[in-house]
Amino acid sequence: MNDMSVETKTQVWVEVCKLDDIPPQGSRVIRATLGCVALFRTTDDKVFALEDRCPHKGGPLSQGIVHENGVTCPLHNWVIDMESGRAKAPDEGRVRTFPVEVRDGKVLIDRALLA
Amino acid sequence: MTKKLVVIGNGMAPGRVLDHLFEKAPGEYEVTIFNAEPRVNYDRIMLSPVLSGEKAYEDIIIHDDAWYDEHGVTLLKGKKVVEIDRADRKVIAEDGTTAEYDKLLIATGSSPFVIPVPGNDLDGVVTYRDLDDVDAMLKTAQGGGHAVVIGGGLLGLEAAYGLKRQGMEVTVLHLMPTLMERQLDPSAGYLLEKALVERDIKIITRANTQEITGADGKVTGVTLEDGTELPADIVVMAVGIRPSAQLADDAGLEIGRGILVDDHMVTSDPDILAVGECVEHRGQCYGLVAPLYDMAKVIATNLAGDASAEYTGSVTATKLKVTGIDLYSAGDFAEADDREEIVLRDATGGIYKRLVLKDNKIIGAVLYGDTADGAWFFDLLKKETDISDMRETLIFGQAYAGGSPLDPTAAVAALPDDAEICGCNGVCKGTIVQAITEKGLTGVDDVRAHTKASSSCGTCTGLVEQLLAVTLGDAFQPDAVQPMCGCTDMGHDDVRRMIVAQELKSIPAVLQELNWKTSCGCAKCRPALNYYLLATWPGEYVDDKQSRFINERVHANIQKDGTYSVVPRMWGGITTPDELRAIADVADKFQIPTVKVTGGQRIDLLGVKKEDLPAVWADLNAAGMVSGHAYGKSLRTVKTCVGTDWCRFGTQDSTGLGIKLEKFMWGSWTPHKVKLGVSGCPRNCAEATCKDIGVVCVDSGYEIHFAGAAGMHVKGTEILCTVETEAEVLEYIGALTQLYREQGRYLERIYKWADRVGLKVAQEQVVENAERRKELNARFVYSQQFMQNDPWAERAQGKDAEEFTSFRLAQFGKVA
Ligand code: SRM
Ligand SMILES: Cc1cc2nc3c(=O)[nH]c(=O)nc-3n(C[C@H](O)[C@H](O)[C@H](O)COP(=O)(O)OP(=O)(O)OC[C@H]3O[C@@H](n4cnc5c(N)ncnc54)[C@H](O)[C@@H]3O)c2cc1C
Ligand code: SF4
Ligand code: FES
After folding, report:
1. Please, which residues 480-539 of chain B have a Cβ atom closer than 8 Å to chain A?
2. Whether the CB of B569 sits within 6 Å of ligand 1
3. Contact indicator for B381, B362 with CB cutoff of 8 Å
4. CA dihedral of B158, B164, B167, B172, whole degrees rounded to 10
5. Residue A5 belongs to a domain
6. Alpha helices, DSSP H, located in B237-373
7. pLDDT tens for residues B319-375?
8. Which residues pair with B3 in a beta bridge?
9. Structural domain boundaries of chain B?
């Protein structure tokens, strides 16, 4: 499978929110032109950004339960690894992931990817 | 002709004799047992988990009443034998009951020492030997307060741990400078002390008790020789035991420290045998079950007519049963010139291992922190294996001695056939493997039934499972206890018990204390834990919304397109023009595409956008409506029919009662959803007889039903009972619901729970036992005061606001 998280040459980081805007083990949604992006925060304050569409039947991953680096889809319980975007076996599929950074308590994401 | 066997004492040793005897010579003896304790035979070893709350008395019964019936045994409970009349071959109990014998078996066990200090007879000074002692400790512990345990050996430490778990302030007094000084050297004793102090147990070493003080005949404290005064609501003596041989002595049998027996376990009277802790054999008295079980086998063989069996003594090993502390000791540790020691110490890892060697053989082993190699060392010890060749690596255990580290199953596979797997019952690997193959055993319970392995203290259960895996390969399906999920090996019931016993009050605490394999749990265990904690600690536990499934987190049902549905309560299915108008207005205002009447007598607004939810709720609230919890593992609907209000057949006010029930029960969280129905007469228009709980009104009162379902399985209800008043209906249903809340496993509907525990449980606890019913209902009522806040109103007023808002790209500024 080829890597779907595209790296752009000129990254334009935009601040989408403060880290504290995302509850630990919770999520927030960014509505972008391209579709919705789910921002997740883990217990150890890692932040992941994924397209908010489950590879199974398009369930909103942002509404799932977050555990370690995984999120369980609210519709039929597929477990998606937030780092790679891949569904956990035996399920197969992958969701798009976006580069995201946390600096000084701010969550930054590459604007180009959202537009 | 059947012979008469009389047994004095009904402890673990004679219980085992009878097991073997009935197997070898069924029907040969007519057995009468006198037991000073007023109960059946139970696993005394497991009293510590009962004290700590990790097990219940029912879990540790070895032979229940049915067993005695089945084997035609007369068990005289609570009858203490005071005399053995050898001339007339009969025994006499305190109350005058007598029984004649052809063979007599004395199994009086041992009695705990009570140190001879003033005040040792005060009320509240107890020993630690039987269930009555445990009950006394539990009763005192209910009031909190202080406990002083005298004696820092295995028993004392287990008592201290149990009392601590029960919420007492506990101090252990130990005479010597460090704990378990015979087994552990001072620094290892210190490791143990530290582990106990971390559990908030106070340890005073070099503590010489001078006096137990009291007031009005009741203990109030302990004074030490150095003047220290400790407050105490209970004092537990755990300083040692002495064989109970008085009765035998009075009867003129030969005794030493215990009742003297030969290798056939026969006393100085050929018709009298003795077994268990009361005997002295070849100069040894034992205080652990393994030797007693060896003796039991010999006695049963002899009684069955085969005189060849001989008992030649045992080496013993034991484990400390304090959750989270691993301590194993086997053999002999006394210091002597001809002995050498190998010690491994890893202070940061909290590990200590000590082997005592004599003539290149292991004669004693102590493992602290990592006891995995216990069985292997014990095997080398018992076989007196010459260890010269592996001396260098011996202390690192079996994995090193074998060259490369082994996985646990491979390690078990590598053990020789005569390696002992179950120390308590002296069962070796070969016996278990043979039983598995010859008798086609498939699980741990089977192995327990056929070989006794793992049936006493249970610490070898893992080894038995590995043996099953080795022997059966893929055909082995690990045990009956389904783990909650991949994050733990523990089943739902064990986890719940530990939440109570260890007073775990948050999800991280559960994951930490119960050694979860993952750092944050998963989508299976977290919602279950959240429910268990909420149900166990009402008013204290703070709900963790991130551990709830989406519907419960946002108090609406997610739909396939990511929108939500909203179902307001319609109490008992009754609505008003105003409510209907408000619903219509909300549907218009928020352009809600579908308005549907549900199967639960209320209205569903489907296709609401998530960000509109708080505003939709605010409007519904304004018209007096609250959440219908159509999304929750909680009270859903109470369907009713029109009853006496309108119906020509109605016998009672079914609508009114349904509304009362819904107002009483709404908001409560339960293992799975709970649906009620109240019908006004047996025509049953509210379909009450396929609900979790149903009420069918009749002329004389109310029939309460439960355990019905009409989902994937259709199941008619069972009748719980009939009561006369509405107040009783509420009390019985409150109690029933609470019982289900306390026993039901997460995602187990009432009918499945009732199926698992038996309908009888509800009958006994809710109907027959009025006191228990009132307690259960009181707990339900108590918990409800924290639950009946409308979750919609809270959110309409701003709670969890971030949940219902998203970010839009246009609002972002560039930073780099
Ligand atoms: C809305 C409703 C259908 C309708 O349009 O009438 C409905 C809708 C759903 N039911 Fe139901 N059930 C509805 C009445 C019932 C009934 C009838 C009743 O309650 O009298 C039953 C059979 C009775 C019973 O529960 O025994 C019923 C048996 C189920 C089951 C099977 C439960 C079982 O143990 O077998 C499920 C699946 C589950 O809960 O795991 C289920 C699950 C669902 C879910 C929650 C499925 C889901 O996970 O999304 C549906 C949610 C739709 C939504 O967004 O509202 N629904 N469902 C009814 C809502 C009643 C209400 O007012 O709250
Ligand atoms: C809290 C606790 C924890 C333990 N933990 C372990 C452990 O981890 N591992 C281990 O191997 N061992 C352990 N033991 C020890 C083990 O329980 C005993 O070795 C075993 O129970 C002894 O069995 P027994 O049948 O000889 O005597 P008991 O089980 O003591 O039974 C004797 C019975 O005889 C009755 N009796 C006495 N006199 C009379 C009379 N005159 N008339 C009628 N009845 C009479 C008594 O009431 C008693 O019920 C523990 C013991 C306790 C108390
Ligand atoms: S029966 Fe219930 S769960 Fe099935 S489609 Fe209808 S509403 Fe959904
Ligand atoms: S849509 Fe995510 S699991 Fe089905």
Report:
1. 518-523, 526-527
2. no
3. yes
4. 110
5. no
6. 246-250, 289-303
7. 777 777 888 888 877 777 788 888 887 767 778 888 888 898 999 888 888 888 888
8. B29
9. 3-111+243-303, 125-239, 492-548, 551-632, 635-789
Judge if the beta carbon of residue A88 lies within 6 A of ligand 4.
no
Cα–Cα distance measured from residue A65 to residue A72, given in angstroms and rounded to the nearest whole number: 5
- pLDDT at residue A5, as a whole number: 43
Q: What pLDDT score does B615 carry?
A: 97
- Tell me the CA distances in angstroms from B390 to B358, B381, B414, B687, one per residue in order: 15, 14, 16, 74
Strand boundaries in B600-689, DSSP class E: 603-608, 635-640, 674-679
Binary contact (B560, A31; C-beta < 8 A): no
Distance from the alpha carbon of residue B350 to the mean position of ligand 3, in angstroms: 55
CATH of B3-111+243-303, one of 3.30.360.10, 3.30.70.100, 3.40.50.2020, 3.50.50.60: 3.50.50.60
Q: How far is the CA of B47 from the centre of ligand 2 (A)?
A: 11
Which residues of chain B are modeled with pLDDT < 50?
403-406, 816
Look at the block and give the residue holding tokens 């496993």: B745
Q: What is the DSSP letter of B486?
A: T
pLDDT of residue B760: 86
| Closest B-chain CA to A29 | B806
The domain covering B125-239 belongs, at the CATH homologous superfamily level, to FAD/NAD(P)-binding domain (3.50.50.60)
For residues B52 and B500, give the distance between their C-alpha atoms in angstroms, rounded to a whole number: 10
Please tell me whether the interface predicted TM-score (ipTM) of this complex is above 0.95: no
CA–CA min distance A28, chain B (Å): 6
CB contact (8 A) between residue A63 and residue B562 = yes
- A65 and B808 within 8 Å at the Cβ level: the answer is no
Q: Is B604 in the pocket of ligand 1 (CB under 6 A)?
A: yes
Ligand 2 atom nearest the C-alpha of B289 is: 11
- Is the predicted pLDDT of residue A87 greater than 70, yes or no? yes
Q: Do A31 and B558 touch (CB under 8 A)?
A: no
Single pTM value for the model: 0.60
Q: Out of 3.90.480.10, 2.60.120.970, 3.40.50.450, 1.10.10.10, which CATH number does the structure's domain B551-632 have?
A: 3.90.480.10
B209 Ramachandran zone, left/alpha/beta (phi>0; psi -120 to 50): beta
Ligand 4 centroid to B582 CA: how many Å? 34
pLDDT for the residue B403? 44
Question: What's the mean pLDDT in A10-17?
Answer: 82
Tell me the C-alpha to C-alpha distance, in Å, between residue B101 and each of B2, B3, B273, B716: 11, 8, 12, 55
